[in-house]
Amino acid sequence: MALDSDNVRVATTGAVYVAPTGTTAPTDSDGALDAAFIDLGYVSADGIAETIDKSTNQIRSWQDGSLVREVVSEGTYSVEMTFIETNEAVLELYYGVTNVGGKFSIDPRKTGGRQSFVIDVIDGASIERTYLPSGEITSVGERTLASGEAIGYQVTITAYADASSTVVEKFFSDLEA
């Protein structure tokens, strides 16, 4: 494989969307999303951190204790980001509530339930679309209120397998299928 600087991507812009689970899934990187997907607005300049966490089980031989195999026993996919736009959809995600309407009660045990998420990352004409058919806000960070700084809503979205065992789907506009 030859080196090709045209293949270096930068996440220059994009969008994060949320919809109820069961919403029609995207089928490519740049097709229109189902109208149920809501754009969550600005994400902080820190961007989006994607994490794939795997746990393994080492299998050793009885004869000499040598490692003979290692199997993946658990795997988790999550993304973390900080929204800096205050809107109803972001407040619902961050606080795990529905129908904010100007007033709501907070129960820190609530997550808001499972939802579908789409993350579009754009670099010129190149688009990487990540689809989580079933994700949930499993962690929120501090919300700092300070003069001269945007109010941030840091969230971690953990992906779960859906009915077809799909955890995450990736689509790339500039790679051959």
Question: Main attributes?
Answer:
177 residues, eight-stranded antiparallel β-sheet, 5% helix
Could you explain how this protein is built, in words?
Helix content is 5%, strand content 45%. By secondary structure, the chain is mostly beta strands. Strand 5 (115-123) and strand 6 (126-140) form a beta hairpin. The longest helix is centred in the middle third of the chain and has 8 residues, at 88-95.
The total beta strand count reads 8
Order of helices and strands: EEEEHEEEE
Instruction: Note the overall shape.
Output: globular
Radius of gyration: 19 Å
What kind of sheet is the major sheet? 8 strands, antiparallel
Tell me the fraction of residues in β-strands, as a range.
over 45%
Low-confidence stretches: none
Q: What's the number of helices?
A: 1
**Mean pLDDT across all residues, rounded?**
93
Q: Structural class of the helix and strand makeup?
A: mainly beta
Helix content: under 10%
End-to-end CA span: 18 Å
